[in-house]
Amino acid sequence: MNRRILISVISITASLALMATGAFAAFTSAAGNTGNTFGAGSMTLLINPTGNVSSTTPLFTIANAAPGVSYTEPLVLKNSGTVDAAHTYLASITETGSTPNLGDKLDLEILNSSNTVIAGPAPITSVAWSNIDLGALIAGSSNSYTASITFDSSADSTYEGATASFALNFLASQ
Predict the structure, then answer these.
(1) Which fold has domain 45-173?
(2) Which of 157, 154, 136 is nearest to 43 (CA)?
């Protein structure tokens, strides 16, 4: 009887060993995908550019102006980058002036290429000149505007000889 039990145990063990080997056998294969790269684009806002360089010439350089007179200048904004700007803003106007502040009497107006008023007229010292949306700016393209500044005709003799310096600050965002 011991012999029968021994043969049975050996048979069962051998059967289990064969089944275990079959249960863990599988084909495998591996592959790799190498050389992947990722590069970030760019957004570069230029003002009145020559090629891909922003102009360093002020938009307005006016001397000896008289009340009631307007000055108009072309304004071109270019995105020389590779990423579109969903919005381009006249973010702010930074102004320093004399006393009385001549900026209070300089009315700015921005028009698009269809001569539709986008903003203004309003004094350059107005808080209204904050985040004026000038629209989208596609990568590699330019948008043209007209900037017009008028010396308010109500300026009296207290403004004679007064000066104002200002910066138009633009921002492009995705």
Answers:
(1) Immunoglobulin-like (2.60.40)
(2) 136
**Residue range 121-136: mean pLDDT, rounded:** 96
DSSP 106-170: EEEEEEETT--EEEEEEETT-TT-SSEEEEEE-TT-EEEEEEEEEE-TT--GGGTT--EEEEEEE
Domain boundaries of the chain, sorted by first residue: 45-173
In 3-state terms the chain splits into helix, strand, coil percentages (rounded to 5) of 15, 40, 45
In this prediction, residue 3 carries a pLDDT of 72
Asked whether 52 and 46 are in contact (CB, 8 A), the reply is: yes
Higher per-residue confidence, 169 vs 4: 169
Question: What's the one-letter identity of residue 129?
Answer: W
